[in-house]
Design brief:
four-stranded antiparallel β-sheet, mainly beta
């Protein structure tokens, strides 16, 4: 079963992206390098609560 998650920029804390993940195979939080439109650069985005 896949669950929706929201990705938050680590620098400006804006909620830019939504994605899905499989809770059975990925127990820890997602960390993806994505482009932040507010920072205007690629930053690390983490899964929010």
């Amino acid at each position: 079963m896949r669950e929706k998650v929201i990705l938050v920029c680590t620098e400006c804390l804006s909620r830019n992206y939504t994605t899905t993940k499989n809770k059975q195979t990925q127990k820890d939080r997602l960390e993806i390098s994505k482009f932040c439109s507010k920072c205007n650069k690629h930053t690390l985005h983490k899964e929010s609560k």
